[in-house]
Each structure stands twice: as structure tokens, then as C-alpha cells.
Amino acid sequence: MRKLLFIALLMLSLLSLLKANPFDTIISSDISHKTLDELETSKQISDSETSKTEENIETEQKTDDNKGEDELEDEEETNDVPNLPDKPSLLDKLKGNKNKDEGSSQEESEPIPCTCGVFLSGQFKKGSKKQPKGMPVLTQEMDTSFMNNAVGNRQCTNKCLELIIKHLPKSNEIICATVEREHVYKERAYLFVKNHSDKWHGTNLSAGREYCCRDYVSYKCPVG
Fold it and tell me: Residue 135: CB partners within 8 Å, gap ≥ 6?
């Protein structure tokens, strides 16, 4: 009986062990399979993330390279464009025209006053419209000008005659002292006037005598 009980207990323990071990083995195998699957899945995820990161880095590098090339091309195009001078605007043109008009109006608003000038016959050709050569031997400027026409020139001429008549008695000494030449021989003195414009106008008026000078000194002209 004792042997039978011992055998029965032994069989029961074996059965209990057999029942316990397969269950534990199945659980452990399932756990191990799950762990391997999770590891592989995590590895794949990490690999995919790594590849995505590498692709993003390459894309960023390509974008930076393209930006750098575009900037270089823009700089070259900017350097190739020549610096063209700025065209004057309409306002500048109007200002320039206004300045010109002001300048011309100032010239017109400032006429030459009546001026008397005495020239010797050797300084001009009688009947010619050309201006006399050199400086006048006598000159006198009035304070005002007359009308810019024939009447105004006649008024200026009359004023000059009034002044010149006062100097006629000593005209020999005055002319020889102020003439630009050392020798003057039998030349007459003629009156010219300026009025309103900077141009001499001949009057055909003469002192009625001849002048002779040597070394800026008057002497009596020989007869004949």
C-alpha cells in the first residue's frame, strides 16, 4: 500500500509538472516571439526615420546650393548692367528754361547806356558797317539810355555833341596823349555812339580838323 501511494503521488507530481511546463513554455515562446517582432519593427522604424532624415538633409543641401547659384547669377546680372546717367526730368527742364528766360530777361532789362566814342579815321573805313578797330581815343558814358530806335540814337548823339564841344579847344593834346599809336598823320576824329546795344553806330560827324601826333605829342600838320 505504501508503494502504491508513493507511486500515485509521484504520478500526480509528474502530471502537475507536465501541466505546468508546457503552459509556461508556450507563454515564454509567445513573449520571445513578440519581443523579436517588436525589435524588428522598431529597427525598421528607426531605419526609415534615418533614411528620411538623410533625404531631408540632402534636399536642404540641394536647396541651399540652388539658392547660392541663383544669388551668384543675380549678382553677375547686376554687375553687367551699366550705370546709365539719369535723364533730366520735366521739372529740371522747366527749371533750366526758366533760368535761361531769367538770364535773357536780365540782359534785356539792362540796356547799354548812351556812350560817346571818338575814333580816328585810320581806325575804320568810311561808309562801312564794320565796327571800328581798337579803342576810341575819347569815350564818355552817360547815366541813362534812350529808346532803341533811330530817334533814341539821335538823342544820344546830341548829348555826346554837347560834351565833346567843351573839349574841342584842347582836342589836339587830348587825342595825341590818349591814342594807341605813336604816329598820327592828318587823320580826322569822328563821333560814334552806343545806345541800348553794345554796338557802335557811326554819325559821320567830325571835328573839322586834321590831327598829327609824334611820340604822343601833337604837332601842326603840314599844308598840302
Answer: 180
